[in-house]
Amino acid sequence: MFQQYEQLEQQIAEHQAKIEELQEQMAQAERIKEGVIAFDKALVNLAAEYRMEEEDFFAARGDLVVEWLVSQLNDEDAPDYIQTLKSRVARHLKREGGAPRRGRRVASASKTAEPKLETGHYRNPYTGATVEKKKRNPKALNQWIDEYELDTVREWKI
Questions:
Q1: CA-based Rg of the chain, rounded to a whole angstrom?
Q2: What is the Cα–Cα distance from 82 to 71, expressed in whole angstroms?
């Protein structure tokens, strides 16, 4: 019976040590949270002080952040989040540079998207020429769009 009592006391001591460790971790997380909030407020105040939008402020500093990240990517002792970022970027670049999953995407990506016009006949009031559009824009219709803009050519439908 005394053995069980001693084992229970030992378990209680272990659990109390674990509780203290968790409370310490929670206090550290709270300090980090307060630091992030203070940092965010400082950035907002800096942007306001220089009469900049937050997006402009971040864009102005963005190049320095990118340079720092690139320098960190080559460091093998970099923090875990840098390694995670490195692997995600590598996967994304591999997907972008690799073979496409469907052949159809290559065809649509390589062609320039031509402006959408309804099927029918179009008459250029300046030249008097008439063009019929069925499925795709005829060459002359595309030239008119380049020259006179899409909205103007839409008005020429007869």
A1: 32
A2: 10
In the numeric block, the tokens 């800096």 are attached to: 46
Amino acid at 148: Y
Q: What is the Cβ-side half-sphere exposure of residue 98, based on CA atoms within 13 angstroms?
A: 8
pLDDT for res 111:
52
Cα distance between residue 26 and residue 20, in whole Å: 10
* SS3 track for the chain: CHHHHHHHHHHHHHHHHHHHHHHHHHHHHHHHHHHHHHHHHHHHHHHHHCCCCHHHHHHHHHHHHHHHHHHHHCCCCCCHHHHHHHHHHHHHHHHHHCCCCCHHHHHHHHCCCCCCCCCEEEECCCCCCEEEECCCCCHHHHHHHHHHCHHHHHCCEC
Q: What is the pLDDT of residues 8-67, one digit of tens each?
A: 999 999 999 999 999 999 999 999 999 999 988 988 888 888 888 877 877 777 878 778
Q: Are 80 and 116 in contact (CB under 8 A)?
A: no
How far apart are alpha carbons 71 and 65 in whole angstroms? Answer: 10
